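Re: the 323-residue chain
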Amino acid sequence: KVVIDNSYLSDLPNNLAGVGRAIIRTIHKYAPDAYVGFLASHWSVDLNLNGAGWNSNGLVWSTDALRDTSAKINVDFFNKLYFGSSTTRPAANTVDAPDFIAVEKNGWCAGTWEMMDGRTYWYWGDQQMKNYLAWVKQIGQGLDLPVLGWQISIGNMDNANTLDMTNMANAYKDTYFPYFFTHVQEFVDAGFIGFLVGKGLQQGTDYTLPDETIGEKGWFMKQLQGFDANRPYLIPGPTLAAVSFCNSNKLFNMIQMENKCIFTLPSKSRGAITVCNAAGRIVSELITHETSVSIDLSGMASGFYLAQIRNGENSQTFRIIIQ
C-alpha cells in the first residue's frame, strides 16, 4: 500500500491557481535543484475582444497596442496562476515562487514552414524581432522573473532549405539566431538568461560541426564559439558565473525599495553580498558583519539583476528588477 502525503498542499485553493502553485511547490520540495517555469504565448489574444490591429500572420506583425495587450494578458494570467492574484504576491524566492518565465518562437525554422505549405511569415525581420523583444520584456518585468527562450529554431539565411535525414543534417533558413548574434544586448535588456534550442521536431535544422560540409555547415557552432569568446563573465576581473536559487534553509531575506535593497542575515558573522547584471558582470559587492545591510540602486541602469548572499556554507540568490 502506497501512502501519499500531500498535506503540504492543504493550504492551497481548489482552483487553477492552486494547481499552478502545487506544481511549483511539489517540484521545489522533491527536486530542490530543479528550476520551475511555464510558457507564455504570443498567440494569447482574444480576437473577439482585442482584434483591432490583429494580423493573421501573428502577434509580431500586429500593432503595438495589440502586442502590449497580449503582454498584459500573459502577466495577469501568470500572476493569478502563480500567486492567485494579480496584485497580492508572496515574497520572491519562497517555495511557491516560480524561477523563470519561458517564451518561444516556433518549433520549426521559417524555411521549414515555407517548404511544407508555403508560409513565409515566420521570416521575422528586424521590426518583428523588436516587437517580440518588447513583448518579452513587458512579461518578464511584469512577473519580476528572468526569461528563458524555449523551442528556438537554429537555422540561418545561408541554408538551402533541405531535408537530409540520412546524414541527420537538415538545414533550413531562419532569422532568429542571426538577429540574436548581432543584437545580444537587446536580448539581455529584455530579460533573457538563456535559450533551450535544438531541432525539436523531426523536420527541424540539425547543427553540424564547423569542419563539416553537410547541412548548415557548422554555422551555429561557429557563431557560438565567437559568442563564448566574448561572454562578459570570461572578461578578466571579478564575475559571478553561476548562481543558485535553491536554498531550503531560507536564512536570508531581501526587501527591494525604490532606490535600495535591504538584506537581512541571520547573525553578525561575516557575510558577502554580490550583485551582477543579466550578462553576469558584477556591479556591486560588499562584505558585512551586520544582520541588516542595504545596497544603493540609484546608480544602476534599468534591467534584471541577481543578488547572491553568502554566509558561511549558506547562500541564497534574489532577483532585482530596476525599471
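The mean pLDDT is 82.
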